[in-house]
Amino acid sequence: MKLYYAPGTCALAVHVALIWAGDDYQVEQVVLGSDAYKKINPMGAVPALVDGDSGVMLQADSLLKYISNKYPDAAMGGPEGLLGEQQIDQWLAFLGGDLHPAFWPIFRPARITTRDDQESIDAVQTAANNRLHSVFGILDQHLAGRDYIVGEQRSIVDVYAYVMTRWMARTRLILADFPDLLRHFERTGNDAGVIQAENEQGLR
Length: 204
Ligand SMILES: N[C@@H](CCC(=O)N[C@@H](CS)C(=O)NCC(=O)O)C(=O)O
Description:
With 204 residues, this protein is an alpha+beta fold. Helix content is 53%, strand content 7%. It has 2 domains: 2-75 and 195-200, Glutaredoxin; 82-191, Glutathione S-transferase Yfyf (Class Pi), Chain A, domain 2 (Up-down Bundle).
């Protein structure tokens, strides 16, 4: 499989899943939004994945599930059964649909406002920080008394959450204010696959 990525983005979660899978993989760093990369993904966003003659596959949550379903022995898809799958899907949707978009005003204020004066940017970013505080708070509360987001061992949702928790450093939020999330972040950051992917992306 071949992953198109930019360092530290949500593609990092897919990179870790490829390492956990234990099969051969390639990675190619791209320039987000560049004309060259838009030939792969017209949105200009990462991750994108190609598996043999699959064509280009997109959307981080679907790619994480694709890899976990393709490599069941790597046990990254959560507890077996209908309920386990529902829990994984619920948290993938929370992370991809609620937490990830909450960062957009921080990374790309022009998606939220057409104004570019400092006061308008500050207003957008204050709203974003408030929203992030609330959404991260829900994850922190869920992790109270738990080592993993779903079940009793690491899964694709743990590493997806980890990547977004890394981004907290680019907000006004302080990770220590979310003690159970901090514990989860440190645990996931010590995973051998996470360390390898971060090394391969030049993040360590
Ligand atoms: N819903 C998409 C979101 C992809 C996305 O926004 N990726 C970010 C990196 S985490 C990106 O490439 N941003 C660049 C841009 O949107 O211009 C997915 O899950 O793959």
